[in-house]
């Protein structure tokens, strides 16, 4: 497997994007959003994940982050995706979801080409990771992350989007603590 766009080093920050199969808008329900937020909190507390910026969009998650305390970010991302896949499927089955049958069928069909036995596939294979090397890159990616919901016309201002660290940087109520960076 290629290591291009993989977070294989320790103690370095990365810009990461993980995306649902078929870009399905899984994160339109509050319970599905909290599946991700709670899993990120767990990774912060137990797996050395340090998050500087994030935005949970309907079909994908952007993170500016690094693994600390000897953890490897690729392992953290693998575990995060594995756990959240199970939670997303469980929530889709157990809670009200008008697209339940369609989503579960899509998740099942996304497994047909896989070599290992798997019932559902929620996330696209791998993830896109770019190493952070300059302050310019940090500013550019944080602006990109925070403006993602503005570009999609979900909100008018970045800090109005509740599932984004733009709220943290604006000093507003938020669901996920992040390490604030001085962007100047």
Helix-strand blueprint:
Elements: E1 14-19, H1 30-46, E2 49-56, E3 60-67, H2 73-94, H3 100-109, E4 128-131, H4 135-151, H5 166-169
Antiparallel strand pairs: 1-3, 1-4, 2-3
Helix pairs in contact: 1-2
Task: Give an overview of the whole structure.
- There is one protein chain.
- The chain is an alpha+beta fold and 184 residues long.
- Helix content is 38%, strand content 14%.
- Strands 2-3-1-4 form a four-stranded antiparallel β-sheet, sandwiched between helices.
- It is globular, with a radius of gyration of 16 Å.
N to C succession of SSEs: EHEEHHEHH
**Spatial separation of the terminal alpha carbons:** 38 Å
The largest sheet is: 4 strands, antiparallel
- Which segments are poorly predicted (pLDDT under 50) over 5 or more consecutive residues? 1-6
- The portion of residues forming beta strands comes to 5-15%
Structural class: alpha+beta
How many individual helices? 5
User: Could you report the average pLDDT, rounded to the nearest whole number?
Assistant: 91
Number of strands: 4
Radius of gyration: 16 Å
Overall 3D form = globular
Helical fraction equals 25-40%
Strand order of the largest sheet: 2-3-1-4
């Amino acid at each position: 497997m290629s290591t291009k766009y993989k977070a294989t080093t320790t103690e370095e920050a990365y810009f990461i994007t993980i995306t649902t199969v078929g870009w399905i808008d899984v994160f339109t329900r509050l319970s599905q959003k909290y599946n991700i937020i709670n899993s990120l909190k767990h990774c912060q507390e137990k797996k050395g994940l340090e998050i500087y910026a994030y935005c949970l969009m309907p079909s994908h998650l952007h993170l500016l982050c690094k693994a600390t305390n000897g953890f490897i970010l690729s392992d953290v991302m693998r575990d995060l995706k594995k756990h959240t896949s199970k939670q997303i499927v469980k929530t889709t089955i157990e809670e009200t979801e008008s697209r339940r049958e369609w989503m579960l069928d899509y998740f099942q069909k996304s497994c047909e080409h896989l070599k290992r036995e798997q019932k559902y596939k929620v996330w696209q294979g791998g993830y896109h990771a770019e190493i952070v090397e300059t302050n310019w890159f940090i500013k550019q990616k944080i602006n990109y992350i925070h403006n993602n919901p503005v570009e999609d016309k979900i909100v008018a201002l970045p800090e109005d989007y509740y599932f984004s660290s733009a709220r943290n940087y604006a000093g507003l109520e938020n669901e996920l603590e992040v390490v604030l960076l001085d962007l100047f």
